[in-house]
Amino acid sequence: MNPVPRQEEILSQPHRIEKDLLGKLAVPADAYYGVQTQRALENFALTGVPIAHFPKLIVGLAMVKKAAAAANCDIGLLETDKYEAIAAACDRLINGEFHDQFVVDMIQGGAGTSTNMNANEVIANVALEAMGYAKGAYEHLHPNNDVNMSQSTNDAYPTAIRVGLQLSHAELVDSLALLQASFAGKREQFHDVIKMGRTQLQDAVPMTLGQEFGAYATTLGEDIDRIAGMIDLLREVNLGGTAIGTGINCDPRYSELAVNHLSEVCGHRMRLAADLIEATSDMGAFVLFSGMTKRLAIKLSKICNDLRLLSSGPRTGFNEINLPPQQPGSSIMPGKVNPVIPEAVNQVAYQVIGNDLAITMAAENGQLQLNVMEPLIAYKILESMRLLRRAMDMLRERCIDGITANRDRCREMVANSIGLITALNPYIGYDNATRIASLALESGRGVLELVREEGLLDEDELAEILKPENMVNPRTMNGKNSNDRRGYLRIGKRCVKA
Questions:
Q1: Enclosing H/E stretch for 492
Q2: Which residues, including other chains, have CB under 8 Å from residue 238's CB and lie 6 or more apart?
Q3: Cβ proximity of 387 and 301 under 8 Å
Q4: Where are the beta strands (DSSP E) in 82-132?
Q5: C-alpha to C-alpha distance for 72 and 179, rounded to whole angstroms
Q6: Which listed residue (12, 114, 255, 330) is catalytic?
Q7: Which of 151, 352, 372, 497 could form a disulfide with 156 if both were Cys (CB 3.0 to 4.6 A apart)?
Q8: By the 8 A CB rule, do 102 and 119 touch?
Q9: In angstroms, rounded to a whole number, what is the distance separating the alpha carbons of residues 120 and 79?
Q10: What is the pTM of this model?
Q11: Which residues of the chain have pLDDT under 70?
C-alpha cells in the first residue's frame, strides 16, 4: 500500500489550496479530486484498495451524475452550459478516463460520502478544464452546488452501486456460462468412460465419467438462470430521496426525470422505489444478491474438491482423470505436480463466503433511516463478483478444457470394486449379494470371480448385466424379483440352480 502523502510533502510540490467546512487544505496541483477527497485519503488508509480498483463502480457514479444533471437541466435548475460540461466530463469517465483519480479507500466512514465527493470533485474539475478554467475554480462550476444538485450521498451512492453491479453482472453470467459449457463438453467427451461412483468416499455403484461431469454442468447451469434473473433486484433505486427518502431539497419532478435519464444512460430499465424512505435504509437486495454469489462459490468449491480427489495420486490415489500440469509442485520433491488451479478456486470460494458474512453483518447493523455500512457492502459484493469471474475463467481455461480421462484405470477400479455387487443384486438376491460382498472383502477376491465360481449367473447373463449402458441407467428387470433370486437353492456356502 503506497503511503498517503502528508500535507508537508504536498506543500513542497506544486499544489493548490482548497477549503471546505473544516478549513483549508493543500491538494496536488495535477489532481482532479479536491479537498474533501484529500481529507478522506488521509483519514481512511485501511485496505489499500481504492475505488479505482472497481471501474464499473466509477462508471455507475458517472452515469448517475449525468442523469441527475440532465434532470436538473430539464427542470431549469442547471444552466445548459454547465449541464453540457458535466455530461461531457461524465462521458469521459464512462469511457475509462480519469479512473486513477478515484483514490478513496473502499472502506470509509460517512456512509459513502467520500466516494460521492470524490466523483463530484473529479467531474467538476474535468468540466472546469473543458470550460477553460483552472482546477479548483469552483465559482464557475461547483462539486456540491452543481454536480451534486438535487442529490445526497444517500441516494446517489446506492444508485451508483446498483448500476455498477448491473454492469458487472453480465460479465459474471458470461464467465459462468462458458464454464458450464466446458463441463458440458466433457460430458460428451467422457460419455463412454465407465467408473465407480462413490458415496461417503466409499464405493457405491457404477456410472460414467461423462455423467459425473454432466452433473457439474447441470448444477452450474441452474445458477446461470438464477443469477441472470437477479438483475431485476438491482433496478429499483431511491434516486430523488436525497438524505433520508423524504426528497428534501429536490424538485417534485426530479425523481422521475432522473430515473428515466439513468435508464437511457446505463442501458437498463431502472425504476423508482415505491417507498423512498424504506429504499434508503434497506439493504435486502444486496444481501440476496450476495447470497447468490456465495451459493455459486460453494458449488465451485465442491466441484474443485472433487477434481482434486479424482486426480489424486497419480500412483497412490484415484487417478481417474488428469488435470493439465501448470507448474512444478514442490521445491523439494522432484516430479511432483499439484492441482494448483482447483486449490486457488477453493480459496476464492472461502473469500466469497467470508464476504457474504461481512455483507450480512453490515446490512443488519444499519440504524434508523440510513445504513452507514454501505461502503463495506459495495466493496465486498463487487470483490466477490470480480473474484468469481476471474476464478471461473481461470478454472475453465487452465483446467477443465484440458482434463483427460484415464480410461483403463477407471474400468479397472470398476472391475475390482465390491460396489459392483449392487448391479448384480436384482439377479442373485440381496442375501446372496451380501454374502458375496462379505466374502470378497475377507478374501480379497473379485466379485465377478466369486459369482462365476458359484455359478450364480452364466456368462451371457453377466455380459448383459455388465454392459455399461445397463449399469448406469434405469433398466426394466423383466419380471425379476429385486429381493430374491428365484430358481436358486442355498447348499452350504454355495447357491445352485434348483
A1: none
A2: 154, 155, 158, 159, 245, 272, 273, 276, 279, 280
A3: no
A4: none
A5: 45
A6: 330
A7: 151
A8: yes
A9: 17
A10: 0.88
A11: 1-2, 468, 476-498
